């Protein structure tokens, strides 16, 4: 076994080295941003806390500004919780899920290399495509949203494609179930994958393609029609409905227009394809997967939502993998042509240049923080915030704002969302930090003005007393109840 391992490491020295370096970069980026209080309860803290609860064998609950409810009232992602939960048995640090996610996503580079190696594509373009993959702005922006279902799914989706090219059938089915467990919407991706396998892959995969379609459709129906509505029922007392049901209308022209009817949609499509040298367009296998990804975001669900259309949130995590794998499949076919073999180094170099330009000059990707000295100075200057957080008691019900809440997700936490909700919960501890000039996400769903008003109210509320008071930062605790 040791000889096999040593042989593997020796034969993969370059990709393993790249994987390790990339993983270190992710760790440096995410840990520093976490220490700078740039992680938020929505959605990092919400998902991280439910994984922690699973590790303690509890029903995963989260606070939604109207009360504690099971996490599954909106989406179903047991895979995220089952992947992260065991690591809390090693360490219950708030950095634990960030470290685990960084390592797993870093490994996706090595997995991607193995896919390209199996398909025997030119090594130069393989390394270039790996570079295009990790620097793709949609991928970078997904990372800085910390723990998220489809972001943590990245290495498992890459493994799913690896199982396909290596014809590991049992592993494929296991990974299909795991990927479905990251989010019920992957059932649509699974459906598209099954169709791609059926139409554009090896004949021996046809029966497995049909099974992939059936499993994906059945899981999607089970999740959206039974499991999620059930958790809505036990949460609210009435049988609910899945809030992300695709809006399918038999209007082909309107559906087609919805793919490109906003500048943001057109930019997402064009930038994504350009970043990979338009290679995915030469792979029929990946085209169906690309179309379904854009269809889910641009047509079927929230067609008019700017949050789902752009490159700036986590919605491009799966797309990054599909674009990379589609490019690999395309090159494996194109390099059979003599003309492309002559042009492959030129094409690869163009892709490399475009990826650098997109990252450095057009989108100014988050990796740029890694070589910015000021980024590390911000972390060093966070002592005043760490001291403030250390003063917040952890006993009883805690009501804390979005960016501070991620340090209290293992406690009895409630999110500061409104004055009415505060009156309803009557927390034992309330922490406010509304220093001017902050990221507005720090307060969400309240505002700086509302927090000011709330602090004034609490200062005059006989139920509470200030434990700590400094300019725009307060910690309030309940006054002891008189026994008279």
Describe the structure.
- Keywords: Membrane, Transmembrane, Transmembrane helix.
- This is Glycosyltransferase RgtA/B/C/D-like domain-containing protein.
- The chain crosses the membrane at residues 12-31, 98-117, 124-148, 154-178, 208-228, 273-292, 312-331, 343-363.
- The chain is 60% helix and 6% strand.
- It has 484 residues and is an alpha/beta fold.
- The strands form two sheets. Strands 4-3-5-7-6 form a five-stranded mixed β-sheet, with helices on one face.
Q: So what's the overall shape?
A: globular
- State the major sheet: 5 strands, mixed
Low-pLDDT ranges: none
Helix content: 55-70%
Strand element count: 7
The gyration radius over C-alpha positions equals: 24 Å
Distance between the amino and carboxyl termini:
74 Å
What's the helix count?
22
In which order are the strands of the major sheet placed? 4-3-5-7-6
Total tally of structural domains: 2
**Beta-strand proportion:** 5-15%
Write the layout of secondary structure elements.
Layout: H1 2-11, H2 13-35, H3 41-55, E1 61-63, E2 68-70, H4 78-84, H5 96-118, H6 123-135, H7 137-143, H8 149-152, H9 154-165, H10 169-180, H11 186-200, H12 206-236, H13 252-258, H14 263-275, H15 284-300, H16 306-309, H17 317-334, H18 338-362, H19 373-380, H20 383-390, E3 398-400, E4 413-415, H21 419-425, E5 429-433, H22 448-459, E6 464-470, E7 473-478
Parallel strand pairs: 3-4, 3-5
Antiparallel strand pairs: 1-2, 5-7, 6-7
Helix pairs in contact: 2-5, 3-4, 5-6, 5-9, 6-17, 6-18, 9-10, 9-17, 10-12, 11-12, 11-15, 15-17
